[in-house]
What does this fold into?
Amino acid sequence: MQIKEVIQFLEQNFPLQWQEDFDNCGVQCGDSSRKITGIVVCFDMSEAVIDEAIAKGANMVISHHPIIYKTGLKKIEPTDRMGRIIIKALENRILLYSMHTNIDSGKNGGNVLFAQKLGLKNLSVLSPKENQFHKLVVFVPSENSIFLKEALFKAGCGNIGNYSHCSFSCEGIGSFKPLSGSEPHIGKHNRIERVEEERIEMIFPKHKKRQVIETLYQNHPYEEPAFDIIAIENQNREVGLGRTGLLPNPMPAKDFIQYVKEKLNLESVRYSGNLNTEIKKVAVCGGGGASFVNDALAAEADAFITGDLKYHDFFIPDNKMLLIDIGHFEGEHFIREIIVSLLQENFNTFATHFTEVEIPVINRL
Ligand SMILES: [Zn+2]
It folds into this structure.
């Protein structure tokens, strides 16, 4: 099996289209046409993890954070950390791959697991992703519409939340004149033809565009099907950064902080807000979620848990919400568990290892 087949599987679960604009998910360096020999999963790339992959005979390392990130990369030299890691990987024919904001945002991704670790119920996305869908409008002879619709549903059209096979149709008259050289399904050369047609509308995730167009051409009876693909601004309410949810039982803020520390195995947290409140609705965003404090307030969360907050961020809620900083690593490290179990459950021809050598870069004394 080639590395690219594993990548294809990962990207079916966490498409690259789910990443933020600033991000660099996916292959960092390496040749994905090589045969896969094993995988090591880590949080951050390091030379130690590459050495671990070499020792374990693995030729793919998957990290959460991309090694090539927000950098105007001009050269790769062993004079800095990034250069040394990339050179070591390439010299040892190891492919580096990252699952960052695509797995943070995804269904069953990092923020969902974060919320589940706190026992939150009735989850919704804190900041739903926009511009994720296209709409297909296609005109087909009425007698062929069921067949075409079925094929398009199979190709990924018509899914909205927990509903599949969503479409809208209306009837009308299509007209056309087959010119010489054409091989019309209906009609004769140089004569205007009028046909009872159905106009079908359905949405699909924009990353499935190629597949949808291929399916349309393969299953539409016309030589030249008429169709529109329209970019739409609808939010994907299942994908995006952060989650909100409800505690099974509301609790005083002071107890809630203790609860968070226990559930996430933390020695201490930083927080601002009033401890004499009751916490019921909770928002979470793993990693650095300072830019979502206002989304959490708008969602009327009683508490927002994230990491990487600066001093002045703690003033934003203005005592309307408990704001808790657990650290960047502490809200995301379990993403490694998601990747490891996904691979171990679906592939048995190579080994997937949870790194044994990684230690967090920030320590406490
Ligand atoms: Zn992060």
Summary: The CA atoms of residues 249 and 280 lie 7 Å apart. The two ends are 46 Å apart (CA to CA). The mean pLDDT is 96.
